[in-house]
Specification:
alpha/beta, globular, 10 strands, TIM Barrel, eight-stranded parallel beta barrel
Length: about 210
């Protein structure tokens, strides 16, 4: 993490939108491998897209309810730098991912995270925590009262963020980074380059 808030543009599926995210100044670009999303990409397409990502920008693969050996295999073949595990994976899966040389993001709903004990949280050997709304991909914001100072590690805010609301959300919750997908789309699965630029500019405007 840098002094600036970390910004990830997720759910990219075309060369043009990957380029738009990088040109806008995003710190990370995300590719969805989990089934059932309008943003899901194949390994072959993801490999072509990751090839466009310069050094210094994180190439993140988003996985959900997938066997960790399959995840590591896909990530290695595609050239990802980071694995975001979003399906309640076991702590051992994160250890396996890190042992394979990947930066790791543990994604979990804010409600579930705050219900965990300190021992449960400590059992996960991840690099970053991502807190999402109760239903990932729903486009709903986290209720600020849910967090209320309950996060004591580096974390990323996700869920329902847009260029119009991200400044207020960051000022209220003070995350270390933000993750956006549907909030920079013209329709489900279709990213909008102008919205990507507006989102990054909004986050960078926050002192």
């Amino acid at each position: 993490m840098t002094d600036q808030r970390w910004i990830k543009i997720c759910g990219l599926s075309t060369p043009e939108t990957v380029d738009a995210a990088i040109d806008a100044g995003a710190d990370a670009v995300g590719f969805v491998f989990a089934a059932g999303s309008p943003r899901t990409v194949t390994a072959d397409l993801a490999k072509e897209l990751v090839a466009r990502v310069p050094d210094g920008i994180d190439a993140v693969g988003v996985f959900r309810h997938q066997e960790i050996d399959e995840v590591v295999g896909i990530a290695s073949a595609v050239g990802l730098t980071t694995l975001q595990l979003h399906g309640g994976e076991a702590a051992s899966d994160f250890a396996r991912a890190r042992d394979a040389g990947f930066f790791t993001i543990r994604a979990v709903s804010a409600v579930d995270y705050l219900a965990e004990t300190e021992e449960q949280r400590a059992s996960y050997d991840h690099d970053l925590l991502l807190l999402d709304a109760a239903v990932p991909g729903s486009g709903r914001l986290i209720d600020p009262e849910t967090i209320n100072g309950g996060v004591d590690e580096a974390w990323i805010l996700a869920g329902g963020l847009t260029p119009a609301n991200v400044v207020d959300a960051v000022e209220r919750l003070d995350p270390d980074g933000v993750d956006v997908s549907s909030g920079v789309e013209s329709e489900p699965g279709v990213k909008d380059a102008a919205k990507i630029r507006a989102f990054v500019e909004a986050v960078r405007s926050i002192p």
